[in-house]
Amino acid sequence: VTGVQTCALPIFEVARQVDFGPVVLGSSRTEKLLITSIGDETVTINSFELVQDERLDFSLIEAPESIIELEPGEQFELNIQVVPSVPGIREATLRINSNDGDEPEIRIALFTQYIGQARIIVEPDEVDFGRVPLDGEYQSAGMTISNEPVNPEWNKVLTVNGIRFESGGTPDFALPLEGVVFPLIIPPGTSNAFNFEVIYQP
Question: Considering the chain, what is the average pLDDT of its residues?
């Protein structure tokens, strides 16, 4: 008589990567990571650890402060958030330490996407100051530079290296841009637009 000896093990199933997609600079996106106990014994998760650069763009939302025990068939959802602080792809690694019989430490890749093309929109496209008396008070007009990609899913930033008048203009116009640091980094969306003034004093 022959038989097969089986060994009951705690094992859990989890995605090995989390793609946050294109996330706009400065905004946030949260994804859920589902952990499922698929073995024959109780899974004990001892810790979740994020490994990332010094900007700390990724975070665990309401992560458990103590160990988690999952009986066979039980599930646990972990919420992971990213808030990109610089343009480009953001990446991190989530380490899950447990009593899993196959892999005591599982590493999960976390990343965003950086796609598309920026599109500059300047409004208004012309400014009429009307009749301004000589030696009178100056007149000002507000202008806006925004980044409005053709595809709303795109998240490339717009880089503005400077704002100036074309050569040959008159000295009656001025750009009060004191304190503005170039290059300007403008994420997509009208709420991220850069506003400034043009002044005219004949």
Answer: 93
